[in-house]
Amino acid sequence: PCRFYLHPELSNDLVGTHPPGAHSLVAVSVGYFLEDSVDMLCNQKLHQSWELLFHHSVVIICFGIAVLLHQYVGFALVALLVEINSIFLHVRQILLMANLVHTTCYRLNSLVNLGTYVVFRIATLAWMTRWLFLNRHNVPPASYAVGTVGMAIMTPMNIILFYRLLRSDFFR
């Protein structure tokens, strides 16, 4: 959010405009997703991690295009807003592993997790899908196809995860 406040031109051009450091941030993010994928492949069973590996693969492809072409970096920055919610998803996992499910901390994290999920995952993905559709005439067909497929994969995945979180944390 700070990037958009400091660089309002991003609101008008998510394809060719990006502030200093944004390209590096997206490149480091690709590295993170690659490292996390390798870690999952080495330390988890495939049936436990296939969804997250699939998610990481889509992100690596989409962000990799942005890094290699030096375009769509602004769009990738918007996509990184989704990761704000990851903080609370990870805290949730840690609390589950520590068997602290029946604590005030877990309950509070569940509420914050759900709120940030709606704002930073669902609303952000909806906004990105809308932006992509409204700007389809400014995006080359190959990039539009990659973006559309990426959004078509990420949106249902996030809706399913949201349902699982609701069911697990609020409707047990």
UniProtKB/TrEMBL annotation:
<dbReference type="GO" id="GO:0007009">
    <property type="term" value="P:plasma membrane organization"/>
</dbReference>
<keyword id="KW-0812">Transmembrane</keyword>
<keyword id="KW-0472">Membrane</keyword>
<dbReference type="Pfam" id="PF03798">
    <property type="entry name" value="TRAM_LAG1_CLN8"/>
</dbReference>
<dbReference type="GO" id="GO:0055091">
    <property type="term" value="P:phospholipid homeostasis"/>
</dbReference>
<dbReference type="GO" id="GO:0071709">
    <property type="term" value="P:membrane assembly"/>
</dbReference>
<feature type="transmembrane region" description="Helical">
    <location>
        <begin position="111"/>
        <end position="133"/>
    </location>
</feature>
<dbReference type="InterPro" id="IPR006634">
    <property type="entry name" value="TLC-dom"/>
</dbReference>
<dbReference type="GO" id="GO:0097035">
    <property type="term" value="P:regulation of membrane lipid distribution"/>
</dbReference>
<feature type="transmembrane region" description="Helical">
    <location>
        <begin position="75"/>
        <end position="91"/>
    </location>
</feature>
<protein>
    <submittedName>
        <fullName>TLCD2 protein</fullName>
    </submittedName>
</protein>
<dbReference type="InterPro" id="IPR050846">
    <property type="entry name" value="TLCD"/>
</dbReference>
<feature type="domain" description="TLC">
    <location>
        <begin position="1"/>
        <end position="172"/>
    </location>
</feature>
<feature type="transmembrane region" description="Helical">
    <location>
        <begin position="145"/>
        <end position="166"/>
    </location>
</feature>
<dbReference type="GO" id="GO:0005886">
    <property type="term" value="C:plasma membrane"/>
</dbReference>
<keyword id="KW-1133">Transmembrane helix</keyword>
